[in-house]
């Protein structure tokens, strides 16, 4: 297959506006869609009002996803109409997980939409744009193509990262785990991993453009099983060792991990590689074995505790982040108390918690014993209070400690610059802009609501 985007050039400059909702993988995908459209003359514009093409990249993970899409589309239709009155065309495209799950409904309820495309089809975008222009009707691409989009997206000079010090890099997509509550296996398709050489090449391009910290992305990033240059299958640990060899790549993160795939080789990589940041997002969802089984998570609460212990044995400064769902069908007060106990036992530096939301087509949606909304509310409040306390305690524990901070940009006040701690907290210091791009030693002096203040003590940090 040839990709017209890489060969077509046009002198017509067109405005592209991308609206991105959902997870970091959508953020990455939006950047790649911009890449694939650039050779057609599309350049990013800040407001949809000036755009010849608007892409709405959607998320389906929790409730009201579809309503939110239609309400936004109503706004975009007004823009399209106003521009049409001025003699200008606007292509409206809906991408992402709602497009995948509800493609037909979007076309029938919003006939002014020109393109509907699932997450595995973005490499075909130039062809879709051409088809939409030719046919004058809507184009829908929601099959899961046999080819992998990553093999067909153009090699860009990583423009999403131009001038950036941190970047996302998707290495794995899709999911075969079928948790009872989750739409992802249906919207993103089967699990697949990019080959090692393609990942390394993209990482190198990012580093050459100035990136120092890369976050590897995947719905189950630690289930990564890419084809290695030796013809063997490489796991995430193997990939991490290889990435750590790239000069200038000082920080590596990965998300989202599944406890089931947290094997010893990956845990040992945290022991061996200072580049692997001591901060891991490892969703557990519940602390009750009964509910973990109902969720089809494939591990027990104690197995999760054991993984955390191993990680902290090899990396004592390891901090944890997680996702929780309260009110999964069948969850009793006692089950919920076990979640609270797990939180107390582990101690999280950060966490996201959600009320269970019935997703169409998922097994839990039709399960008996749905938990009433007010019970979910009460549980969520209790859990969030505990998690907030832990987040504050963790930040507080850093006061007086000297930590490494990658300085990424200007601060909020004049004379201030801001960076990132190893645990993803924003850190503010007094300093000048020439320091941006350096990793420095900072002694933490104060905790703010969601960030830290500190004083720089040394201009460079030994890895
Ligand atoms: N692959 C990751 C999670 C991806 S979805 C994992 O397995 O952990 C991100 C988070 O959204 C999940 O961890 C879960 O906490 C939440 N989530 C997913 N489906 C949900 C639903 N139906 N209701 C409420 N929260 C949900
Ligand atoms: Fe969804 Fe479970 Fe897959 Fe995570 S592992 S994406 S929660 S099905
Ligand atoms: Fe949302 Fe799809 Fe990501 S449902 S969380 S955008 S994989």
Automatic annotation (TrEMBL):
Give the cofactors, semicolon-separated: [4Fe-4S] cluster
Q: Name one Pfam family in it.
A: TRAM
Q: Where in the cell is it found?
A: Cytoplasm
Q: Which reaction does this enzyme catalyse, per its entry?
A: N(6)-dimethylallyladenosine(37) in tRNA + (sulfur carrier)-SH + AH2 + 2 S-adenosyl-L-methionine = 2-methylsulfanyl-N(6)-dimethylallyladenosine(37) in tRNA + (sulfur carrier)-H + 5'-deoxyadenosine + L-methionine + A + S-adenosyl-L-homocysteine + 2 H(+)
* Binding of [4Fe-4S] cluster 1, residues: 23, 59, 97
The cofactor note reads: Binds 2 [4Fe-4S] clusters. One cluster is coordinated with 3 cysteines and an exchangeable S-adenosyl-L-methionine.
- Enzyme kind, highest EC tier: transferase
Where the record annotates domain MTTase N-terminal, the positions are: 14-134
Q: Where does [4Fe-4S] cluster 2 bind?
A: 175, 179, 182
Please name the InterPro entries in this protein's record. Answer: Elp3/MiaA/NifB-like_rSAM, Methylthiotransferase, Methylthiotransferase_CS, Methylthiotransferase_N, Methylthiotransferase_N_sf, MiaB_methiolase, rSAM, rSAM_horseshoe
Work out whether the entry's keyword set contains Metal-binding: yes
Q: Which molecular function terms from Gene Ontology are attached? A: tRNA-2-methylthio-N(6)-dimethylallyladenosine(37) synthase activity
All copies of the Radical SAM core domain together span 161-393
Matching Gene3D superfamilies: Methylthiotransferase, N-terminal domain, tm_1862 like domain
Where, by residue number, does the polypeptide cross the bilayer?
none
Sorted keywords for this record are: 4Fe-4S, Cytoplasm, Iron, Iron-sulfur, Metal-binding, S-adenosyl-L-methionine, Transferase, tRNA processing
Domain named TRAM: which ranges? 396-458
**What Enzyme Commission number(s) apply to this enzyme?**
2.8.4.3
PANTHER family linked: CDK5 REGULATORY SUBUNIT-ASSOCIATED PROTEIN 1, MITOCHONDRIAL TRNA METHYLTHIOTRANSFERASE CDK5RAP1
* Task performed by this protein: Catalyzes the methylthiolation of N6-(dimethylallyl)adenosine (i(6)A), leading to the formation of 2-methylthio-N6-(dimethylallyl)adenosine (ms(2)i(6)A) at position 37 in tRNAs that read codons beginning with uridine.
Q: Which family does it belong to?
A: Belongs to the methylthiotransferase family. MiaB subfamily.
Q: How does it assemble?
A: Monomer.
* Protein's recorded name: tRNA-2-methylthio-N(6)-dimethylallyladenosine synthase
According to its UniProt entry, this protein's organism is Acetobacter thailandicus
């Amino acid at each position: 297959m040839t990709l017209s985007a890489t060969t077509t050039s046009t002198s017509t400059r067109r405005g592209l506006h991308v609206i991105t909702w959902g997870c970091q993988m959508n953020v990455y995908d939006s950047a790649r869609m911009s890449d694939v459209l650039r050779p057609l003359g599309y350049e990013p514009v800040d407001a949809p009002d000036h755009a010849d093409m608007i892409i709405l990249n959607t998320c389906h993970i929790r409730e009201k996803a579809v309503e939110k899409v239609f309400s936004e589309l109503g706004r975009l239709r007004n823009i399209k109409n106003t521009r049409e009155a001025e003699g200008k065309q606007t292509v409206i495209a809906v991408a992402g997980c709602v497009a995948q799950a509800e493609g037909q409904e979007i076309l029938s309820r919003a006939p002014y939409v020109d393109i509907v495309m699932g997450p595995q089809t973005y490499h075909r975008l130039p062809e879709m744009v051409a088809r939409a222009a030719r046919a004058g009707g809507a184009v829908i691409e929601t099959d899961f193509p046999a080819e992998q989009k990553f093999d067909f997206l153009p090699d860009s000079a990583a423009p999403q990262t131009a001038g950036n010090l941190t970047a996302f890099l998707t290495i794995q997509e899709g999911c075969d785990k079928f948790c009872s509550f989750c739409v992802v296996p249906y919207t993103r398709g089967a699990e697949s991993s990019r080959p090692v050489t393609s990942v390394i090449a993209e990482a190198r391009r990012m580093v050459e453009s100035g990136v120092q910290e890369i976050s590897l992305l995947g719905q189950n990033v630690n289930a990564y099983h890419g084809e290695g240059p030796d013809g063997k299958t490489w796991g995430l640990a193997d990939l991490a060792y290889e990435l750590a060899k790239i000069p200038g790549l000082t920080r590596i993160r990965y998300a989202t991990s599944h406890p089931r795939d947290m094997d010893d080789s990956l845990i040992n990589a945290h022991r061996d590689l200072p580049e692997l940041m001591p901060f891991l997002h490892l969703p557990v969802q519940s602390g009750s074995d009964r509910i973990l089984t109902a969720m089809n998570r494939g591990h027990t609460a104690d197995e999760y505790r054991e993984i955390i212990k191993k990680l902290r044995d090899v990396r004592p400064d390891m901090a944890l982040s997680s996702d929780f769902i309260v009110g999964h069908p069948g969850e009793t007060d006692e089950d919920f108390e076990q979640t609270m106990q797990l939180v107390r036992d582990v101690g999280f530096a950060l966490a996201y918690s959600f009320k269970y939301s019935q997703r169409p087509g998922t097994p839990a949606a039709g399960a008996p014993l749905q938990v009433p909304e007010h019970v979910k509310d009460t549980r969520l409040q209790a859990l969030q209070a505990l998690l907030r306390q832990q987040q504050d305690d963790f930040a507080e524990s850093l006061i007086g400690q000297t930590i490494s901070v990658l300085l990424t940009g200007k601060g909020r006040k004049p004379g201030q610059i801001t960076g990132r701690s190893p645990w993803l907290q924003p850190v503010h210091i007094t300093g000048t802009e020439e320091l941006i791009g350096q990793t420095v030693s900072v002694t933490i002096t104060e905790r703010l609501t969601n960030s830290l203040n500190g004083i720089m003590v040394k201009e460079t940090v030994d890895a």
